[in-house]
Amino acid sequence: MTTNYLNPVSWDNIPSSKFASLIRSNPADCQIALIGLPDDTGVQLNNGRPGAKEGPAAFRQALAKYGVAQPSGWDWPTVFDAGDVDVVPGDLHETHRRVTAAVKSILDLGLFPIGIGGGHDLTFPFVRGVADHFGPLEGMYFDAHLDVRETDGSGMPFRRLLETGAASSMRLHGFDPNANTAEHVQWFTSHGGRIADDAVWPIDQTFVSLDLDVIDQAFAPGVSAHNACGWTSTQTESWILEAGRNPLVRCFDIMELSPPYDRDDRTSRLAARMFLTFLRGYSERPS
Asked: Per-residue pLDDT for 13 more than 70?
């Protein structure tokens, strides 16, 4: 398949017993499209730890070794790897434009997009492409940070989504009060945002974004901004399973995987686990 701004990725020599052996290089008859977002310009603009541009490659390496092809109790949805967006390092706005164009091309094929990043700013153009297709979305994201900075960078995606009308409302789970200013909390709560601690899901079409730094650094050290007191892997997985099951969820991303800070591929393996957990939930959606 030839798609604007997408570079194909090969899945060669995967044992037939592994999930990754099922990933297809052609979108025909597929349900899911995997899109790599290999850029951390936004992280660097916010003076964060660079390295998230390597996230998609590390994720695929972990996924190649994790997950069985024939699980007991469900069948995997069919997955097309659309490749990595051809980003422009250092040019945040051009990269964002390309991400949106790539997502639109996937949606035109009738596929459900899952993004792997990359700086969290990439959620903005990723969701923008989905909103251009479906209309404004409610947002649910899992993150230690509000990410509503006014300036460009990885800390601004949810402000931009609300300001542009791509998102109609927002719910944040995993909020760290030690990592967010009073100014950002005030802006968020006065512009349709809610810091949530319940299990209530939006009642309209929704996007879901998982920033791996919502997870405690003991489980996820390989992120742009590690979390000294975050969620457990099990706690996070329960939410991601429900996100996969929810037919109102229109897209999903896993962001801020930063391999240079990982230990024993711990975080990339966890990202692969969350991807498979979402797919398991998706397999339970009504036809």
From this structure: yes
